[in-house]
């Protein structure tokens, strides 16, 4: 049965009890509205650790005033049922006051991979992510934490956070889970109408076409411009970015190195992100 705790004290007490037994602990941070992509992260955690902790917290600090904090899907009862079925040992479901008590005045800012891309359009996003993730690492003291490759820039930022602050845990990246037509699983997919869903499912094919072209020696600037046009012609309303970057640092991509093609595009009121691998070999 999944233990549910709402306080940092209860979380620490349980994790430290497991550690006293010599058990390895994994953390999967989430904002709830769980789907099969999240379940895959839990499975990856359970494969690597004796105990799995999943946090469910809609972090207000990573939403801009114009974004969808109030509309972000919340379904705690359904989420807890999913955790139970997945074999998760503990759910940490704090309120905002538990995470950010009155007078809280600290922020973590990570450089390097946070530059450009998402930051160009959501300037405070990664500071909010780094702050809450840093707090979760301190609160839960995990041996490892699992993040999805779907949010690839976020994964790189979290790895840099752990590296630069010498935090004693391993960060595991887990492959993106997609539906039968290639759409990356996302809690925000729930916002899409049937027509928008059909359009959204074209995105991954466009990215794979671009990555294949780069692997075949095509010019990067021409390929990225063509991919941007393909996204618009597929029916998206706007493209925030389509870019090729190095896999580890998100520095500008160099030919014959492993990389990623990353995209953020807007469809109606929904903003979708995705990425695919560029193989050096």
Proportion of residues in extended strands: 15-25%
Cα-atom radius of gyration: 19 Å
CATH architecture of the largest domain: 3-Layer(aba) Sandwich
CATH topology of the largest domain: Rossmann fold
**What is the average per-residue confidence, as pLDDT, rounded to a whole number?**
98
* Mass-distribution shape: globular
CATH class of the largest domain: Alpha Beta
Total individual domains:
2
Compressed to H and E, one letter per element, the order equals EHEHEHEHHHEHEHHHEEE
- Give the distance, in angstroms, between the N- and C-terminal Cα atoms: 46 Å
What portion of residues is helical? 25-40%
CATH H level, superfamily name of the largest domain:
HUPs
Please count the beta strands (DSSP E, at least 2 residues each): 9
Show unreliable segments: none
Structural class: alpha/beta
Describe the sheet with the most strands. Answer: 6 strands, parallel
Describe this structure in words.
Its EC number is 6.3.2.1. The protein has 10 helices and 9 strands. Strands 1-4-3-2-5-6 form a 6-stranded parallel β-sheet, sandwiched between helices. It has helices spanning 8-20, 36-48, 76-86, 96-99, 118-121, 125-140, 152-164, 194-200, 203-215, 220-233; strands spanning 3-5, 25-30, 51-56, 90-92, 144-148, 170-174, 238-246, 259-267, 270-278. The model has no long low-confidence stretch (mean pLDDT 98). The protein is of the alpha/beta class and 281 residues long. It has 2 domains: 3-174, HUPs (Rossmann fold, 3-Layer(aba) Sandwich), CATH 3.40.50; 187-278, Pantoate-beta-alanine ligase, C-terminal domain (Pantoate--beta-alanine Ligase, Chain: A,domain 2), CATH 3.30.1300. The termini are far apart.
């Amino acid at each position: 049965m999944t233990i549910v705790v709402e306080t940092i004290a209860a979380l620490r007490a349980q994790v430290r009890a497991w550690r006293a037994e010599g058990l390895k602990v994994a953390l999967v941070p989430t904002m709830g509205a769980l789907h099969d992509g999240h379940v895959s992260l839990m499975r990856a955690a359970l494969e690597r650790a004796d105990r799995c902790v999943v946090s469910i917290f809609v972090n207000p600090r990573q939403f801009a005033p114009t974004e969808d904090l109030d509309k972000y899907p919340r379904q705690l009862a359904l989420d807890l049922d999913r955790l139970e079925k997945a074999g998760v040992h503990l759910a940490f479901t704090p309120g905002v006051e538990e995470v950010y008590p009155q007078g809280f005045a600290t922020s973590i800012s990570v450089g390097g991979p946070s530059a450009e891309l998402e930051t160009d359009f959501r300037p405070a996003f990664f500071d909010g992510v780094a702050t809450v993730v840093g707090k979760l690492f301190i609160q839960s003291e995990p041996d490892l934490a699992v993040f999805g490759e779907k949010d690839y820039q976020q994964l790189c930022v979290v790895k840099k956070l752990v590296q630069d602050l010498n935090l004693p845990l391993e960060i595991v990246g887990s492959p993106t889970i997609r539906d039968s037509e290639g759409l990356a699983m996302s809690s925000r997919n729930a916002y899409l109408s049937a027509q928008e869903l059909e359009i959204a499912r074209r995105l991954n094919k466009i990215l794979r076409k671009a990555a294949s072209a780069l692997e075949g020696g095509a010019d990067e600037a021409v390929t990225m411009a063509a991919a941007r046009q393909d996204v618009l012609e597929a029916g998206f309303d706007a493209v925030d970015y389509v870019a090729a970057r190095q896999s580890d640092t998100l520095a500008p991509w160099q030919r014959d190195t492993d990389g990623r093609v990353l995209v953020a595009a807007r469809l109606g009121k929904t903003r979708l992100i995705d990425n695919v691998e560029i193989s050096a070999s």
